[in-house]
Amino acid sequence: xxxxxxxxxxxxxxxxxxxxxxxxxxxxxxxxxxxxxxxxxxxxxxxxxxxxxxxxxxxxxxxxxxxxxxxxxxxxxxxxxxxxxxxxxxxxxxxxxxxxxxxxxxxxxxxxxxxxxxxxxxxxxxxxxxxxxxxxxxxxxxxxxxxxxxxxxxxxxxxxxxxxxxxxxxxxxxxxxxxxxxxxxxxxxxxxxxxxx
Amino acid sequence: xxxxxxxxxxxxxxxxxxxxxxxxxxxxxxxxxxxxxxxxxxxxxxxxxxxxxxxxxxxxxxxxxxxxxxxxxxxxxxxxxxxxxxxxxxxxxxxxxxxxxxxxxxxxxxxxxxxxxxxxxxxxxxxxxxxxxxxxxxxxxxxxxxxxxxxxxxxxxxxxxxxxxxxxxxxxxxxxxxxxxxxxxxxxxxxxxxxxxxxxxxxxxxxxxxxxxxxxxxxxxxxxxxxxxxxxxxxxxxxxxxxxxxxxxxxxxxxxxxxxxxxxxxxxxxxxxxxxxxxxxxxxxx
Lengths: 197, 286
Prior knowledge:
The complex is a heterodimer.
Chain A: H1 3-7, H2 14-40, H3 52-62, H4 64-80, H5 85-91, H6 93-108, H7 118-146, H8 155-172, H9 174-187
Helix pairs in contact in A: 2-3, 2-4, 3-4, 3-6, 3-9, 4-5, 4-6, 6-7, 7-8
Chain B: E1 3-5, E2 13-16, E3 19-23, E4 28-29, H1 40-56, H2 60-76, H3 81-105, E5 113-116, E6 122-124, H4 125-151, H5 154-163, H6 168-197, H7 206-237, H8 257-278
């Protein structure tokens, strides 16, 4: 952080833009990798996207920048792996719910992304695992119905698959990332206490 | 081994087989490719219009005609077949699940019913037709995106965004993201090679392979944090600011006759198909 930045108090800085770009690129790569994972590892449930457990820590560390990175990164990743633009843009709104809901909960309830107390864990499990997955999976399974990718009769089965994959990833991977990297994220100038700065 | 040129306007180009080629999102394309003559904004409009058209058409014959036309476009743009294969491989999971979902959960009435399921779904000859139509529509839209990805440079996208009068910070972020994707992919492969050199094997059960992949994600994140600091410092050292200041541009969006032809034809197709589909009810499946 430059002396100029430190003196002028909290505002959008170059670090935020750089961090946003890095997070978006990581999201795009992980989202593209998901498509190839299905091809090389048959048997994976639909909704098994390695970007999912990473987007929540990004949102908790970098606020709205992390949420924007989740949307734009997954849209780019989806397009790169072959999803038509017209389908990808509305579909990946589920990632805004996935990352945005825990962000709102942590900021409003003053939770710590480092998951140091039992209260932090309760907030994380409730809003960062269950509530966000419920809403994101519901969105993620209904949008393809509109585009004829699967019929409405299949929604329940696909939703269950999506939900299980999301819950597994969120429960087993996201806490490891939060516990392991929150300290490092705090040391970057982009760590936000609010929604943007 | 391509010889890279990293100066001025030709940054990101390579000499392959005696001819200088330009690096797009996915590969090095020939500068005499017809789509190189159109600007990136025209191509963006084409992707959106034709992508929407692909999903508006539900009639199998019209959909196959559009797919054939897009394949002609791929050939004209000189896009290697390996990229089509890659797209199909990447989408295979979704396409397979879509086919299974239609087979076991749809209720498309037809003359011949092959089987009926306890939950009320049935499979008729028209279900099969519906799945084929879906594949045709989906692949058409995917291949249109592929044309864009294979014939557009990262810098062209930024020029188009600047033309749309978007703030410089957004254009800068877009350019940076697109450049970072290829940089981070290189980092990823370096990590994979480093772990292989340490004896890590990516074979075995599904869980084992996933565990190995997750072990690669953590160094990637750690590497990312280091790079954020370095890039931030480098930008600050060059006096970069997010505040709005007057900036000059080296590249500008150029319009020529090919752009007008492509814009006029894609928007006409879009309007004609939208009217036919939603006003007159043509091009529907049933």
